[in-house]
Amino acid sequence: MKTTLLSKPLTSIYVEQIAPQFGMPDLTLPFWGSRKKMPMHRIVRLEGEGNYTLFHFADGSQLMVSLTLKKMESRLSPKVFVRPHKKNIINLLYLEAFHPDHQQLSVSLVNGDLIEVSRRKASRFIKQVKGFQQELLILDARPTTPALVGV
């Protein structure tokens, strides 16, 4: 059974517009002996693989960095990024639906990924999603600033 969270998934234009409201600066990541700046709001999810983290971006690209998921979690905006399972951190801007199934809850993201929510983290995760939805409602209620019109 699929339960939709939002009336419709957020568009990429809308995500670009509201990202500054959630305190989402660029991340500087170690990459092949150098550093690379990546826009935080374009990260769909992060997947832990031992001492490495695999970034999944909105454009479908991926990037592996030599930092643990725990270390990355401390660098992300807590209003938008949540950890539903020990192996994943997801960006709520790209959350599409809940999938409750007997004892196991999972969520789908707009890129088609299906992520399990651990039983121990389920209630906290749901509270975080509801808080995020409230933030979106507040943002939607604000009048549109001229700088955002037509973008």
What does this structure look like?
- With 151 residues, the chain is α+β, with helices and mostly antiparallel strands.
- The chain has a single domain, classed as Beta Barrel (OB fold (Dihydrolipoamide Acetyltransferase, E2P)).
- It is built from three helices and eleven strands.
- It has a five-stranded antiparallel sheet with strand order 6-5-4-8-7.
- Strand 7 and strand 8 (88-91) form a beta hairpin.
- The chain is globular and about 40 Å long.
- The N and C termini lie far apart (36 Å).
- The model is unreliable at 146-151 (pLDDT under 50).
**Rg over C-alpha atoms, rounded to the nearest angstrom:** 16 Å
Uncertain spans, ≥5 residues at pLDDT below 50?
A: 146-151
Largest sheet: spatial strand order = 6-5-4-8-7
Shape descriptor reads globular
Domain module count? 1
Count the strands? 11
Pfam families: LytTR
Protein name: LytTR family transcriptional regulator
Domain HTH LytTR-type: 33-131
InterPro entries: LytR-like, LytTR_DNA-bd_dom
Compose a concise summary of this entry:
By secondary structure, the protein is an alpha+beta fold. It is built from 3 helices and 11 strands, in the order βαβββββαβββββα. The protein has one domain (3-139): OB fold (Dihydrolipoamide Acetyltransferase, E2P).
List the keywords.
OB fold (Dihydrolipoamide Acetyltransferase, E2P); 3 helices; 38% strand; five-stranded antiparallel beta sheet; disordered C terminus; 151 residues; four-stranded antiparallel beta sheet; LytTR_DNA-bd_dom; alpha+beta
Write the layout of secondary structure elements.
Layout: E1 3-4, H1 12-18, E2 26-31, E3 34-39, E4 43-49, E5 52-57, E6 62-65, H2 69-73, E7 81-85, E8 88-91, E9 95-101, E10 104-109, E11 114-117, H3 122-141
